[in-house]
Specification:
Its EC number is 3.1.4.58. By secondary structure, the chain is of the alpha+beta class. The protein contains three helices and ten strands, in the order βαββαβββαββββ.
Length: 174
């Protein structure tokens, strides 16, 4: 990994056991494309792109100030976009997820980090360049979310590898 800059994003990392179940379910659909490895399954909260590594401490301090409650997330909608992106999404995103994303985006913008202007879309990417239409499916994957993380993405000949930089708990505040 380049010591002077890193490709960074904040995300909810899919728990290992759930990621394995989701990957098995996806693989059983028999679709063609580039599947995301189970270890890389996540829901992006904020994509930062290439950032100087000297800003890691600032990002850690910023994340530690967020006051967000844990929540339950149900991934129950399968979507394939025209560009071949296949993902799971919640039909009803929890208010706590939206609040976490909004709080994080606001804090990042205030700190001078440039973010994409498109609205937050809660989704977990399953496959890229999916060339086949998925069959009608009724997925239902439940996830108790209790923390969020800062990840670095490194591209290798075998694809992207995500390294967790730090993690913060979601806590109930009164």
């Amino acid at each position: 990994m380049n010591a002077t800059s890193l490709r960074l994003f904040f995300a909810l990392r899919c728990p290992t056991e759930l990621a394995e179940r989701i990957a098995q379910w996806r693989d059983a659909l028999g679709l063609h494309g580039h599947p995301v490895p189970p270890a890389n399954l996540h829901l992006t909260l904020a994509f930062l792109g290439q950032q100087p590594s000297v800003r890691l401490a600032e990002l850690g301090s910023l994340a530690a100030t967020l006051k967000a409650a844990p929540f339950d997330l149900r991934l129950d909608t399968l979507v394939r976009r025209r560009n071949g992106l296949l993902y799971l999404a919640p039909s009803e995103p929890p208010a706590a997820l939206q609040e976490l994303a909004e709080q994080l985006h606001q804090a990042l913008r205030t700190a001078g980090f440039g973010l994409e202007e498109r609205p937050f879309l809660a989704h977990l990417t399953l496959m890229r360049r999916c060339t086949t239409r998925p069959p009608a499916a009724n997925p239902s994957f439940d996830w108790s979310v209790g923390h969020f993380a800062l990840l670095a993405s490194e591209t290798s000949p075998r694809g992207s590898v995500y390294q967790q930089i730090a993690e913060w708990p979601l806590l109930r505040f009164r």
